[in-house]
Design a protein that fits this description.
- By secondary structure, the chain is an alpha/beta fold.
- The chain has one domain: Rossmann fold (3-Layer(aba) Sandwich), CATH 3.40.50.
- Helix content is 38%, strand content 24%.
- It is built from 5 helices and 10 strands, in the order βαβαββαββαβββαβ.
- The strands form 3 sheets. A 6-stranded parallel sheet has the order 6-3-2-1-7-10, with helices on both faces. A two-stranded parallel sheet has the order 4-5.
- α4 (120-131) runs parallel beside α5 (157-167).
């Protein structure tokens, strides 16, 4: 029996949330599950692309309940484990607090520098996700730069992760390209 595969999602902080992009992601996730034996999907955070991918995989989980969602967290990121969802909801109800649990996953992987790292922890977290994946889905636009002050700019974390995935020989899908 073939080993189950994994796929990570990495994209720019802000991407256009269009019906076409969502449709492209739905088709790709379906292909990865049905044809490539992907059962584990890895997510970071801090981007609208990640949020959209999480939504698409969560919808796909209805038809494919074996799918596992794994959050790779660093810095001040958090998630709710599916196994703790009812308990968490019950605690908030006791205090009459209405809380939405938008990021519910089956597993969390905390980056080793989660509580001490600066901005570089996102780059390191993305590399860890790439290392743990067979497939990588990116929303990467060449020339995208992140403003770092008035006169400087830095290469985006997505650009760094994209180059890293290619260097590591991963199967890369870039949904920003037509």
């Amino acid at each position: 029996m073939e080993k189950h595969k994994s796929c990570c999602f990495v994209g720019h902080r802000s991407v256009p949330h269009t019906p076409q992009l969502k449709s492209k992601l739905q088709e790709l996730v379906q292909y990865l599950v049905a044809s490539c034996n992907v059962q584990t999907f890895l997510f970071g955070s801090k981007s609208t692309f990640n949020d959209l991918c999480y939504q698409v995989v969560t919808e796909a989980k209805k038809a494919h309940p074996h799918i596992q969602r794994v959050a790779y967290t660093c810095k001040s990121e958090s998630c709710t484990l599916q196994s703790n969802l009812e308990q968490s909801q019950a605690i908030y109800k006791r205090f009459d607090t209405s809380v939405a649990f938008p990021f519910v996953v089956e597993q969390e992987v905390e980056h080793p520098s989660k509580h001490v790292a600066g901005k570089a922890c996102y780059v390191q977290r993305n590399m860890a996700m790439v290392d743990a994946s067979d497939f990588c889905v990116f929303y990467f636009c060449k020339g995208y730069v992140v403003a770092q002050g008035k006169e400087n700019s830095a290469k985006s974390g997505t650009a760094i992760a994209h180059a890293y995935a290619i260097k590591r020989g991963k199967v890369v899908f870039n949904v920003a390209q037509n």
